[in-house]
Amino acid sequence: MKKFLLAFAIVIVGGILSLFVFTKFLGPKIIHVAAPTGEPVGKFDVPRPESSLLTVKIAVPIQMMNDLASKEIPAQFEGREKKSIHKRIKNGSYAWKAVRGDFVFENSGDRLAFATPFQGAAKVKGNLDAKILTIPIDSDVQIEGAIGGTVTPKILPDWQVDPQLVPQIQLSKASLNIGQLGRLDVSDLVGGSLGQYIQKEARKLTPAIRKKLNVRKSVSKLWHQAYLTRLISDDPKVWIRIDPQEVVLAPIDYSVPDRISFTLGIRSETIVTNREPGAPEKQPLPDLVPLDGPVPTELRLPLIVGMKELNEVLAAENIDIDTGIGTKIEISGMEAQIAQNGLLNLKLNIEADKSRLGRGVVGEIWVKARPVIDYEEQSLGFTDVELTVETKDKLTTAAAWLLEGLLTKGLESQLRVDLDDYQAEINEEVQKGLASADLPEGINVSVENLNITLQDIYTITRHSPEAAPDPGVVIVIRATGDLATEVNELLLKPDEEE
Question: Where are the alpha helices (DSSP H) in 271-396?
Fold first, then answer.
């Protein structure tokens, strides 16, 4: 009996010793690495200002030009002049009176053309030298033709509108029957006088167009409303501030048949801060900067993401890495901290099974990594991944080689954090902001095919120059698409006092 109990005890003790030896020397190495030491310093001290370009389309309906011309140019016109009509007609003079029709402007694709028919009569007087006697002439001449021309508006850097008006006149009928001299074509004669008058009257359109198209006043309202300071987050407190910098102008757009349009862009700087910034110092509307090509809408918005919020996303990510040498590494429970030089410290719960090179590893380690945006996948990724000094000190040479050579590459290739929630949030905020914006009368805003993409990511030390250190991450969102702010004809009415 004693021999049996002794043998049993030996087996039990042996089993315990075997389990201890397996765990201690042959089983996975259990490690716990403390967080890296050092002061967290962001890549930038505070968020960088981001430059955005918001387009403003000022539409000029063709019908408005028709109404303007009909109002400014008299419907009936008349004139008189003393002038030699023919070498055999002495003391020549003539007077004319005509009535025009409605003005019709047309978008010809690269300018505006306009025309209106007119008809009337001219009374020609003089004395015909018939050699033997002088015959008095007092005859009526029927005249017909068209008043026309082109308008190619141009907005100058000082915001003055130059219509670049070129009026023209065409006479299709103007002949005088003077007996033995036959029919005398007086179109050049009457046309010259009539043409001078029409030129004078048509040029009344120039100041009228300048007055009607008060582009400076229209854009000035938008310019001053572009200065914006607004609280965008209550917890944590985050404000956004927008400061307009310049206004640019694209070439005139003639693509829509019933209108022309001027597309301007207000370029602004956007910053975020965790302290309420002071009211921006508004500047007067600057001179215009003309461009050779179109002005696309492009909004670049910096979004501060707190570490708590980022870690909630990271904690949900689990990764399985197949090393290709018979070892699998499972990663879970990730957590990030701001490191230095634009890096993040990442805590990983890993389970690496035994490889042909040594024991497995189970526990908590830390790596350093640089956050980057994967433009193709539109996700958060990491590069420059390496084990921290503290982690290397805890691992055996074989385990350190395994993790540094294989885990880091696996993290760079497989760790992609989906940030769709941020894109959707920005999309929603843009739509909501446009719907509730307090815009001046006569301004329409439409958004179609709005495209939200992740543009950049970087670490910061503090949210504003005056704030205490509060390291975090800034994600830059880029919004493009068919975002059009259109100033319609209602706003382009001149003031009554002007």
Answer: 307-315, 389-394
Question: What pLDDT is attached to residue 429?
Answer: 63
Query: CA nearest 337: which of 271, 263, 388?
Result: 388
How far is it, in rounded angstroms, from Cα 265 to Cα 285?
13
Residue pair 252/262 in contact (Cβ under 8 Å)? The answer is yes
Is the distance from CB of 423 to CB of 397 less than 8 angstroms?
A: no
Tokens of 277: 């910034």
Q: What span, in angstroms and rounded, lies between the C-alpha atoms of 103 and 69?
A: 7
Answer positive or negative: Cα dihedral of 28, 29, 34, 35.
negative
Phi, psi of 342 (to 5 degrees): 80, 10
Helix (H) or strand (E) holding 401: helix 397-402
> Over the stretch 387-427, which tens digit does the pLDDT of each residue have?
888 888 877 765 666 667 677 777 888 777 777 666 666 66
What's the pTM value of the predicted model, to 2 decimals?
0.70
Helix, strand, coil percentages, rounded to 5, for the chain: 25, 45, 30
Helices (DSSP H) in 110-262: which residue ranges?
187-202, 205-212, 215-225
- Cis peptide, bond prior to residue 294, ω within 30 of zero: no
70 three-class SS: helix
Name the residue type at position 429.
Answer: E
Angle (CA) 77-213-250 rounded to 5° is: 130
CB atoms within 10 A of CB 464: 20
Q: What is the DSSP letter of 207?
A: H
Give the Cα separation of 218 and 211 in Å (integer): 12
Q: Which residue has the tokens 């030129």?
A: 199
3-state secondary structure of 436: helix
Query: How far is it, in rounded angstroms, from Cα 427 to Cα 171?
Result: 60
Handedness of CA 407, 473, 339, 336 (dihedral sign): negative
Contact 96, 120 (CB under 8 A): yes
- The structure tokens listed for 496 are 């009554």
Q: How many residues does the chain have?
A: 498
CA distance readout (Å), 404 to 348, 361, 398: 13, 13, 10
Give the integer Cα–Cα distance in Å for 139 and 86.
14
Q: Any idea what DSSP says for residue 469?
A: P
The two structure tokens encoding residue 20: 């201890």
Tell me the sheet residues that pair with 154.
Answer: 162
Taken in order 238, 239, 245, 251, the sign of the CA dihedral is positive
Q: What is the Cα Rg of the chain in Å?
A: 41
User: What confidence tens digit (pLDDT) does each residue in 428-449 have?
Assistant: 766 665 555 555 555 556 666 6
* Burial of 24 per CB tally in 10 Å (0-12, 13-18, 19+): exposed
43, 375 contact by CB (below 8 A): no
pLDDT tens readout for residues 35-58: 888 888 989 998 888 888 888 777
